[in-house]
Amino acid sequence: MPIDLSTIKGTVAIIPAAGIGERVGANKPKQYLTIGGRTILGLTLDKFLNFDPVELVVIVVSPNDQYLANLRYIENAKIVVIDGGNERVESVNNALSYLFDNGLPDDTAVMIHDAARPCVTHEDMVRLIETFNQNQKACFLALPVADTLQQLDDEQRVLGPLDRRNIVRALTPQMARFADFKHAVESAVINKLPITDDVSALVAAGQDVQMVIGRADNIKITVADDLALAEFYLRQQQVV
Ligand code: C5P
User: Global pTM?
Assistant: First the structure.
């Protein structure tokens, strides 16, 4: 149903949740696995619904999704649900197109956050949004790399180390002005760029992006072992 987004003044959050999560090896998409009796998507959603600057949350799910309807509070007036695509970048592009079609102003602040990162903290979200407001340019949470990074060729031969001082791990949320995300992600889809986050699209489109050091507990649940670690962090945060 078309809604009028032209009066939105706060931040819009986009939560891509249309992945299959094959690497976890479960019988359902990883965002619907539970930790302490709550789904990963529900835990992630709560972080954004309880974050005052966020006025609207766009959840992107698979067109074949059978689980979302069972989620408690999915009727929340702050939430809209739209269909995703085959790749993460397509899912995000669908969300941005939906916002564009419904009149979201170009200057709206947009945060994009993986459904698979339920441990993101209020503290990190505040620091990100403060950085965005101060500098009026795109920014994202990131972490320095502790391990030595060895580059491999296509046959898995070790070519030698990368300079880890010049490398960070890109986390989410990632934040930019709506029109900047829209232009960058749409170009990435049109040009079939093999990207796995939204900062990559911004940089490819020539945008200046600032990093904000994030917390190490903001893990992306990817393999089965990550569930126990996420549960540990969420208990520490007294969320579950
Ligand atoms: O696969 P990966 O862990 O990198 O996915 C990151 C996030 O992107 C997940 O929350 C996943 O549900 C979402 N995603 C999506 N559409 C896809 C693939 C992944 O929304 N086609």
Answer: 0.97
